[in-house]
Design brief:
Number of strands: 7
Largest sheet: 7 strands, mixed
Distance between the termini: 92 Å
Structural class: alpha+beta
Radius of gyration: 34 Å
Number of helices: 4
Order of helices and strands: HHEHEEEHEEE
Strand content: 15-25%
Shape: rod-shaped
């Protein structure tokens, strides 16, 4: 006859099923944590991609507004009055803070809104223009030896310089880009002398 105590102490299928349940729960918990982490990473990457897209739209809008501001200065165009109205300003005083940091861009009279976007374009832009140096002799700024190479030492081109600053925004104002060009307007031609991103 078998010993009843010996039979009860031997592990059977019922004792093993409890351990399988614990291992299954641990595995399910680990898989859930991995899935939640993957969803969070995916959401962050989606936000990053959206921010990059909004910044690109804001920069494109600002560049379009820059070109509109430069069109006001092209040779042959009638220059506006630089008296502080309609987004056209005189040369700033020495030591003044940059105008783009103090300007109230929301005021229509402070800057010019760019209206050349197609219908439904998800960005907006505005610009202003400042007078800088007027009547600068370009030949005086030429590198040494340039007159001899070009044979134009007697020719003096008088050039005026202006600053065009444009602000583009997209995503309801979440993405803002500010661009600046120095524009030269001369008797023999015109164009950008410099370009930089301020913000």
């Amino acid at each position: 006859m078998r010993n009843p105590e010996l039979i009860m102490s031997q592990p059977g299928p019922a004792g093993q099923s409890g351990m399988a349940l614990v291992i299954s729960l641990i595995m399910l918990t680990v898989m859930s944590i991995i899935a939640v982490h993957g969803m969070r990473v995916s959401m962050v990457e989606e936000r990053i991609a959206s921010n990059v897209q909004q910044l690109a739209l804001a920069e494109q809008a600002a560049e379009a507004a820059l070109r509109a501001g430069e069109a006001n200065l092209a040779v042959g165009a009638t220059l506006p009055l630089f008296n502080g109205t309609s987004g056209f300003y005189p040369q700033p005083a020495l030591g003044d803070a940059p105008r783009w940091t103090t300007l109230d861009w929301s005021q229509p009279s402070a800057s010019n809104s760019y209206s050349g976007f197609p219908a439904g374009w998800p960005a907006s832009a505005s610009y202003f223009v400042e007078q800088l140096e007027l009547g600068i002799s370009v030949s005086a700024k030429a590198p040494p030896g340039q007159c001899k190479k070009l044979g134009t030492c007697g020719a003096v081109e008088v050039t005026d310089f202006y600053r065009v600053v444009a602000r583009g925004e997209a995503g309801g104002g979440q993405a803002v880009v500010v661009l600046e060009t120095t524009y030269q307007r001369g008797t023999t031609g015109d164009g950008r002398a410099s370009w930089r991103r301020l913000r």
